[in-house]
Amino acid sequence: MPKDSGIGASSKRREDVRFLTGAGNYTDDINVHGQAHVYFLRSDIAHGRISNLDTSAAESMPGVVRVFTGKDFEGVGGIPCGWEVTDKHGAPMQEPAHPILAQGKVRHVGDPIAAVVADTLAQARDAAEAIDLDIEELPAVLDMKAAAKDGTTLVHDDLKNNICYDWQLGETDNAKVDEVFANAAHVTSLDLVNNRLVANPMEPRVAVAEYSRGTEDYTLYTTSQNPHVIRLLMCAFVLGLPEHKVRVVAPDVGGGFGTKIFHYAEEAFCTFAAKACNRPVKWSASRSEAFMSDAHGRDHVTNIELALDAENNFIGLRTNTYANMGAYLSTFASSVPTWLHGTLAAGNYTTPVIQVNVKAMFTNTVPVDAYRGAGRPEATYQLERVIDKAARELGADPIALRRQNFITQFPYDTPVALTYDTGDYNGTMDKLEAAADLAGFAARRASSEANGKMRGLGINCYIEACGIAPSNIVGMLGARAGLYDAATVRVNATGSISVMVGAHSHGQGHETAFPQVVAEMIGIDESMIEIVHGDTSKIPFGMGTYGSRSLAVCGSAMVKATEKVIDKAKKIAAHLLEASEADIELKDGQFSVAGTDKSVAWGDVTLTAYVPHNYPLEVEPGLEETAFYDPANFTFPSGAYACEVEVDPETGQVSIEAFTAADDFGNIVNPMIVDGQVHGGIGQGIGQALLENCAYDENGQLLSASFMDYAMPRADDVPFYGVDHSSQTPCTHNPLGVKGCGEAGAIGSPPAVVNAVIDALNSGGKAVDHIDMPVSPSRVWAAMKG
Amino acid sequence: MYNFEFEKPSTIADAVAALGDEDAQALGGGQTLIPTLKQRLASPSALVSLSGIAEMQGVCVEDDGSVAIGGATPHAVVAREAAGSYPALAALAGQIGDPAVRNRGTIGGSVANNDPAACYPAGVLGSGATIVTNTRQIAADDFFEGMFSTALEEGEIITSVRFPVPQAASYQKFLQPASRFALVGVYVARFADGVRVAVTGASEDGVFRWSEAEQALSKEFRADALMGLSINPMNMIGDLHGSKDYRAHLVAVMTKRAVAACL
Ligand SMILES: Cc1cc2nc3c(=O)[nH]c(=O)nc-3n(C[C@H](O)[C@H](O)[C@H](O)COP(=O)(O)OP(=O)(O)OC[C@H]3O[C@@H](n4cnc5c(N)ncnc54)[C@H](O)[C@@H]3O)c2cc1C
Question: Which terminus, N or C, of chain A has the lesser number of Cβ atoms within 10 Å?
């Protein structure tokens, strides 16, 4: 029997009522009395030196409050990077300045040059047109391999070259790796591109800042996945403000997908300008601005080689990747191609020797940072594509080849720095084979062929490291902050509960799922519990939501705080029941004395805690507890996916006919929400695989700068999914045994889709090894033509 | 958007008068013009809305059997009201954009705009329709003058478009994956005196007639009649979504499919 409340119940998402009825409160809904509007004048040139910037005419335009340029920010800090990567020679990464407004040079189309604050947005825009600007154009640095060469144009004049770092993980002895490959019975090599993406959450970024001259307090409302991180970075590194004078609020946020993790110049600008202008300042990005100023995702160019022995065992893996950083280092940019990517190179397999090489490159493009999956999709894609190619070359069954090389003993130490705690890759693959009816594929292929279509089956396995992250480990790896989280459980006198959590919900359903856990622990109705998030003045601390960490990390803090609450409540109950604390049991919201019929209700205990007429004097009144939780390890969700496509041999059009996901997320709190997360992730993965392509021309102009050219997946581009998460090996080191499910779909689906297309083409007699994503009709057609 | 005056006349004569102002511009459904204004790429002094002019609305069958569509008729209305009288054209209108676009966008606006990837130009040219304006009648063959360019004079209004109804017709649209305009769209219309084939989405010169295909199909109206025919890729559009070669290839495929759909 499925449960109807508590852990394991598919409770309906309570937050959807307000989202779907237009009662949400998004940052753009916030208007502060007397606010002025800011318009950013952005570079339409990819790379150049500002030779003239005269704002005098703009300043005298109607409604203009003030015009800011880079000069106003001399001496003010730049946007910091939160992760210092050490290169393979032991040197720190090259870390260029990232100014709030351009200082002398523009480095990508969209780089902000000046900001006009005016009474209305239209006036600000009018005035921006009156700014006299000349830019001396420089050659745009775009191709990563060319950018790595000596003597090429520099994106940052003060750096020694365009290489942020040259990093390595795994086997450091090149001779040893060479030997493995030299002795291999078979080597498969593949060159591939992990395409640049624009996250495009439905809600563009917005910032509203106000400053009180009386109290010297600032409030910043912003579209963020992690308001505490924004406050920390902005106060400590950019504006030099005391944290207690700054409140950062991220109210309802309309999707993030990673791109709202980062601290952006516009947030710092509005906060700075609110004081400088002594007026609240509001900025709302247009969609066009979002395309050229939200951090982009992915953008890796990789060569991967897999060595197999005569029995088809994987014996070696080597990758060489160029990872695009864009023009500046965004908040987590440096960690994505390294510690979130290289560490996943083993995948689900026992490959003993692995070497990962990554050169991170500066180019004249929008900064690139974490996007749903962040590094792990890139790792999975290259590995699962090369395995598929190896299977084809060897005439091996792609599932059998994978099974043969699966890790089956846990815990498992990979050669690339991780220890997987649990997993059951064969068990999950069994679930997939059944759920996807792989036995019936041959018949489905035959019927597609009868309709003149080629049909393909693509298999993919993934492992991800999430529940980010054990602070001591990431500290050793260069993270400049710990990645623990916190929760306060505040019980009210009448027994209802507010839980202040550091995680931020922007679509994930925390407002529903988190109360399920507390309700289960205490045995009260979910509706008595509410989550408070997204406001630094209300919650103790929080590193926010990304890396599928909310439930695994913040949820664990919530469990700990709830345990403390229960412990204290038991003391009070023992006093009321005149029994020993050790004998008190809590079940279904009733405290009872073991072995008796004496009991007292949750509400009576909570009332006693706050209205202490009859109270144990040795216990402090009140019932509120806070806990911080630092995970002992990453969590390791894994899964096996199957995708079936049809390809139109005349046009190259690919249509996804079936998609099945079998995931192991450990324990599951709300199966419906988990299904939804997987659906959304697969949708985004299909978008990457078939449609989305953030492309620049040779001058650094963004070709896909709007939805006219950037293809987002629509409902009819994706099939109805089969999702099975009955394979469950609970996480061994967090109290709920949960692993995280937010990114899985986006990690596991792109290789499944591309593998399926390649399978379809080969079944139709077209010997095609690889097509880069997006696998658009024109690319498929070109590949078929040969 | 820059500021502008707004007028909504109820007769063609008043609209023509309002458009007499040099920087005034006609507003159909605004599905192209409003985004252009939002990006500050145009700054008309006045917008003259045509949506309040009753004589420019709706679909009617004329005495000679041709179908006349008012210049301010939204795509959704054509999709609905021409479904009986000219099904292929109604189907074309029903494939434009999404419901919001179809309920606002108009045939006059689409034809006047002559976007190289728009659907209507293929239907108009493929049908050999007549564009009726406040001053004259223009044959489709003389109307489309290349990407975003037409025979319309400054201030001239498309009041209706008159379509002769072919024996059979079909529009085959291959979607550009992002915009879902036509990456290539082919309109094939079979009349008693011959076949017309109009192609949109493909050429740098905008909508065009594929005369070799027309000749072949006029002789023998079968998909096989197109075998061996191909389009020179040279003047095709090549972009992010498809190379010149790919578009040339798709023209042949979509033409074949349109013929098959007619049979
Ligand atoms: C999301 C989206 C998707 C779309 N998809 C498609 C598609 O798949 N296929 C397709 O063909 N189109 C598509 N369109 C375009 C749509 O069909 C519009 O109808 C068309 O762009 C213009 O029509 P309109 O009535 O909106 O004209 P407006 O935008 O109002 O005007 C366009 C131009 O025509 C002029 N004009 C308007 N009416 C007249 C008239 N009666 N006489 C003379 N000049 C006039 C205006 O002055 C202006 O210059 C799409 C648009 C959007 C926004």
Answer: N
Q: What is the pLDDT of residue A111?
A: 98
Domain A484-629 class, CATH top level? alpha beta
3-state SS string for A205-235? CEEEEEEECCCCEEEEEECCCCHHHHHHHHH
Model ipTM value: 0.96
Q: Is the pLDDT of residue B243 over 80?
A: yes
CA A535 to chain centre: 20
Q: Which fold has domain B168-262?
A: Enolase-like; domain 1 (3.30.390)
Q: Do A711 and B178 touch (CB under 8 A)?
A: yes
Task: Locate B66 and state its tokens.
Answer: 């041709």
Using CB atoms, pick whichever of A125, A708, A781 lies closest to residue B249: A781
Nearest to A66 by CA among A8, A19, A115, A130: A115
For chain A, positions 694-723, list CB contacts with chain B under 8 A: 695, 703-704, 707-712
> CATH top-level class for A300-469+633-785?
alpha beta
Mean pLDDT of the B241-258 span: 98
Beta-sheet strands, E only, within A83-131: 105-106, 112-118
Collect all residues of chain B within an 8 Å Cβ-Cβ radius of residue A707.
Answer: 178-179
CATH no. for B1-47: 3.30.43.10
Q: Which residues of chain A have pLDDT under 70?
A: 1
Minimal Cα distance from A649: which residue of B?
B253
In 10 A of CB A310, how many CB atoms? 8
Q: State pLDDT tens for residues A376-392.
A: 999 999 999 999 999 99
| Chain A residues inside the 8 Å CB shell of B243 | 778, 782
- Every domain range in chain A assigned CATH 3.30.365.10: 300-469+633-785, 484-629
B254 → chain A, closest CA residue: A651
Does A777 contact B177 at a Cβ distance shorter than 8 Å?
yes
Q: Do B178 and A782 touch (CB under 8 A)?
A: no
Task: State pTM to two decimals.
Answer: 0.97
Residue range A131-148, pLDDT digits in tens: 999 999 999 999 999 999
Among the atoms of ligand 1, which is closest to the Cα of residue B119? 11
